């Protein structure tokens, strides 16, 4: 935490002081929001353990996180005499296990990074209902599953656009993003100082609440210069996402529910389906399809978070020199029941299954195919009642078992010289199950 405090620039601290002085004039308002999770994950041998998961993105997170992540989100709001509102926002992130887009900018990937820094203008005289933005930010349409710890719609980058234009039959959001996955740049032989370094430029257009319903439609187009290390890679791509948001749990009970359909081709397929920046190795004819079910149901004193997706990839290629790519199938399904016992004590349980069929992971015996089952029990101390209440302190036990055919996909390390995957910590002993324990704090404010 000392490192975090020292890493906050003097200018940001001055901004907070300035907001205190300006508040008396009723023109400025300062707010600080944030997120924190931190804990320990250990196995029955008393050793620190890694998270478990087969998917390239996401994992059943309850009782399955070993890293520390801190986000601080300062915001200054300025209001003019005419009523125009300007919001200046930033996102300072520290993560001990750096896994996401531009967070990895130094050698160790663990210092404080500015993941957002942008300005919004709204209530302008010629467009009072539209919010314009410019800078480095997350899209306001990003959508994630808290249960699976995964944004299946994720557009981040530096650019500009607007949200909330009323077309009569729908609301329109549009923006252009330039994105450079700097941690991947460090991992592969690419000179980021070279002229024409291949940023991914994407145009993102959303139509929301079409015809007054819960239906949203997104259209995405990508453009990236071909890199010399991937001479057959795609330079273009397009994708579409359809989302239907239901009232409650499919209209049956309280909570929420949504169904998502996604398709991508070229740069918009594979690991870039529903997001930007990860398609450097995609082929022009790489194609991907995905269906997502993301829900929370309220039944009496219980709440049930459920999540599932199915994805099919054609001519998929994952950072390799394979000329044609290969087929890949993956799907997950899980449920997290939450019971509030008293106002400040709850029981959480999670059952999750992941399945992967990917020829790139040869696995034990050359299978590259199989599943992983994870079960977690987590007594939880709560600040207040409800699934979403935070802070929470969780004490958990997690048991997981996987098929031998996906041992190398579980937590293996890819060797680029030999095009092989070595077994990771869980599979080095030859076991196909583990019993883990730990404690975790999670806060957002």
From TrEMBL:
GO terms for biological process: monoatomic ion transport; polysaccharide transport. GO terms for cellular component: cell outer membrane; pore complex. This is Sucrose porin. Belongs to the porin LamB (TC 1.B.3) family. GO terms for molecular function: carbohydrate transmembrane transporter activity; porin activity. PANTHER family: CRYPTIC OUTER MEMBRANE PORIN BGLH-RELATED (PTHR38762). It is found in: Cell outer membrane. The keyword Signal applies. Gene3D superfamilies: Porin, LamB type. It comes from the Bacteria. InterPro entries: G_neg_Bact_CarbUptk_Porin (IPR050286), Porin_LamB (IPR003192), Porin_LamB_sf (IPR036998). Keywords: Cell outer membrane, Ion transport, Membrane, Porin, Signal, Transmembrane, Transmembrane beta strand, Transport. Its main location: membrane. It is a multi-pass membrane protein. Residues 1-24 form the signal peptide.
